[in-house]
Amino acid sequence: MKSGYTAGIIMKAFSVAIFLLLFMDQTANGRSDKTTVIKTLGANILLPCWNTAMNVTPSFTRWMQNGQVIIGRNHSIILTPSSEGHLTIMYNQSLYINGLALSDEGIYLCDSLPHDNNTQTSLTLQIVYGPGNGITDIHPATTLSNGTLIVHRGSTVLFNCSSWSYPSQRLSWGFQGVVSRNDSLTAGSGSWLNFRIEDIQPTAQGNYICRAQNSVSQKEVGWSKELLVYYSPEKHPECQWKIGKDPSHVQFNCSWFGGYPSPTLLWGEKHQVPSSQVAGQLMESEVTDRLVVNLNRSLLFEGQTLKCDGHHPMISTEDEKFCSFTLKSPYPEGEPLVTALEGTNITLTCKESSSLPPALTTWQRTAQQEDVVPSPKYVLSRQGPTFTLTIVNITKQDEGFYFCRSENPLMVRELEIYLTVKTSSQYTGAIIGIFLAILIVGSGIVIAKTVYSSRDRICLGNGFERMEEDREDVLSLVESDEEVFPEAVPRLPPLSLTNGHNTTTLVQIHQISSNDHEDEEIVEHPLQLEHTDMEELVTF
């Protein structure tokens, strides 16, 4: 029985060999039609076989790859079973390939018995893959949580893209910005493609796309990266203020433009204390280029320091950027008392330069503090911190109180000025007084000059007084209208002094009117007497 089984196997093998020889002979004498089939790596494919005669069940089918038999089938038995089911000849002679591999690529030839007009079908199987495994690299850059890349303005940035395709590929870099769309930057073949941008600017901000296209399948794949160019503002934040219609309310504005992205601004308060600075209560914070806070008088005080801090991703926390100012109340200055002459013009002056925010300064008059309105009578002007009020053609009714009123969000202060108006009659007494003063001074000058010119006589008078103290003899003669006889005039005896000095005798002659003795005239005659000779002292 065993020998009979073996004989049966041999007979079947012999039959297959005969069929193969016949098949090869017919293949050599026949012709083939070539077709190209493109399939992706890893896919499944069914290759048809069309050379079987119509309405005839084939007895044997074989498939060859690149001239080598890879599988055959006796439609009663399978001659060459597939490896793990990779290759299978179907009932209709088609070849089924499960999970294409690169080794499956090639020219396939199908042949079956009986033939149809000696025709064979030739198929070219092209395996393709990709593009895939794409990688884009942009550096140096910082990656945000959403995948967006950040670079610094002015830096040099490298762009690299790689991909794998079979059998070949074409790579390209494109750019989509705010202004430009779908700009092609560079292209080439190969597994990678790179380029660089030096001194990158904000105009280079946008989406960068790397595209890879399979040269056989024409399949295209792209990978996109969003790139942001960050830069910080060049200047410090700017602090400003705006006073509303109500001076007790103020709007503080902090702006910091010129950077990307928008900075974070914080309005806060700083308290200055000895040897330290303590941060006060935070007022408001926001990511913006301009931050506004509105405050009223109840939240402000003298010497309060308000500060706006600016923070930007491109600036380290140690490099502080801020603006600040210290609040000061107004203090108007000027002359509190002013006097003017009726009919003239007078200018009242007030200076206010210490307040911050700058105070609103106005003029008021009378005890009721009525606002002074510009008119031909009242001329208001300002030059820097100096405010003036000119009153034209002053009258007595203009006399009274005037107020220079300065108000800022901290408080109100007033300079009180009292204007006194004098009429022309009030100056008459002053003019007379000045005249009398000049007259008295002039009289004094004349008297002094007269005394000075008569100083010799005054000095002699003092000499007679000293002679009288020294018991010198003085002779006084009185001239009158009465008859005088020479015999009545005595001679003066000579005076002798023990010290031997000359003796001076003074003779005074008085002329008396015969009736009322008026116009008395005194004539002084100093006479010198020598000690050796005695002369007559008086002659008529």
TrEMBL record:
Pfam families: Ig_3 (PF13927)
InterPro entries: Ig-like_dom, Ig-like_dom_sf, Ig-like_fold, Ig_sub, Ig_sub2, Neural/epithelial_adhesion
Presence of the UniProt keyword Disulfide bond in the record: yes
SUPFAM superfamilies: Immunoglobulin
GO CC annotations on file: neuron projection
TM regions (residue ranges): 427-448
Cited PANTHER family: CTX-RELATED TYPE I TRANSMEMBRANE PROTEIN, V-SET AND IMMUNOGLOBULIN DOMAIN-CONTAINING PROTEIN 10
Name of the protein in question: V-set and immunoglobulin domain containing 10
Source organism: Oncorhynchus mykiss
Gene giving rise to this polypeptide: LOC110526021
